[in-house]
Write a structure and sequence with these properties.
- Helix content is 63%, strand content 6%.
- The protein has 244 residues and is of the alpha+beta class.
- The protein has a single domain (3-238), classed as nmb1532 protein domain like (Four Helix Bundle (Hemerythrin (Met), subunit A), Up-down Bundle).
- It has a four-stranded antiparallel beta sheet, with no helix packed on it. It has a two-stranded antiparallel ribbon with strand order 1-2.
- Strand 3 (23-26) and strand 4 form a beta hairpin.
- Helix 3 packs antiparallel against helix 4, helix 3 packs antiparallel against helix 6 (186-221) and helix 5 (149-181) runs antiparallel to helix 6.
- The longest helix has 36 residues, at 186-221.
Length: 244
């Protein structure tokens, strides 16, 4: 499989035993999302092409099943809007983080399924996530910097958070590798769940900052021709089969 084909794989929401794992925890009272899925009410909408929420299948644990919903980004989402593509990347970040946590938490899956999930999460965070960081730092940052004090503050925070994520990601990747080699290890899988939870917390503030301040600024300040150039840069980093 070529590098472009591997990256194209990450356009699909990850699953474990056929379950879409991009779950948004929703409180019964008021229906507001919790955890990394929580967003302010004025948050940017999900990308065009995202499927509507639906009930989580019964394989999710009883405690979470009653209050969970799913949002899925399908493979190869078609869009001419660069912000939609960046938002779709964020949903994949959330979904692969959820897959890592499920590989540690779930007791109803086989060792081979756990090992496969670990392998897929490793590939995503070592191959695809760095491209998204480049999208934001090399394509987005220079086009927005200097246009608004509020946006400049958010851009600087974005870069600081990218650097801070490296340590947390490093821990997760180490544990993923260990669980992949020993998927039946109970203590290792518990460590994986904790590492994924830690990463989930690290990403939560970061993703919401970008979705509520930085991405809307692209639509507000960046000319259509420059947005098209950004999209071309995103595609060039991944290969022709991605973002089509």
């Amino acid at each position: 499989m070529t590098r472009a084909e591997r990256i194209c794989q990450f356009e699909q929401t990850p699953t474990l035993r056929g379950v879409d794992l991009l779950s948004l925890e929703v409180r019964k009272a008021g229906g507001h999302a919790t955890g990394s899925a929580a967003r302010p009410r004025n948050c940017t909408q999900l990308p065009r092409g995202a499927k509507s929420a639906r009930t989580v299948p019964d394989v999710i644990t009883r405690e979470r099943r009653e209050s969970a919903m799913l949002v899925k980004i399908g493979p190869g989402m078609k869009s001419d809007d660069v912000v939609d593509l960046l938002l779709a990347c964020h949903e994949r970040i959330r979904s692969f983080t959820a897959l890592a946590r499920a590989a540690g938490d779930r007791s109803d899956v086989s060792a081979s399924e756990v090992a496969d999930a670990c392998s897929r999460v490793e590939r995503y965070f070592t191959e695809a996530l760095p491209l998204h960081v480049r999208d934001e730092e090399d394509s987005l940052f220079p086009r927005l910097h200097g246009l608004s004090p509020e946006v400049d503050e958010a851009l600087l925070a974005m870069k600081e958070q990218h650097a801070a994520h490296e340590e947390v990601l490093g821990v997760l990747l180490r544990v993923l590798s260990e669980v992949r080699r020993n998927p039946s290890g109970v203590e290792l899988r518990a460590e994986l769940a904790l590492a994924a939870e830690r990463l989930d917390r690290a990403f939560a503030e970061h993703l919401v900052l970008e979705e509520t301040v930085i991405f809307p600024a692209v639509r507000q300040f960046v000319a259509p021709a420059a947005q098209a150039a950004m999209k071309d840069e995103l595609r060039a980093r991944r290969g022709p089969k991605t973002f089509t």
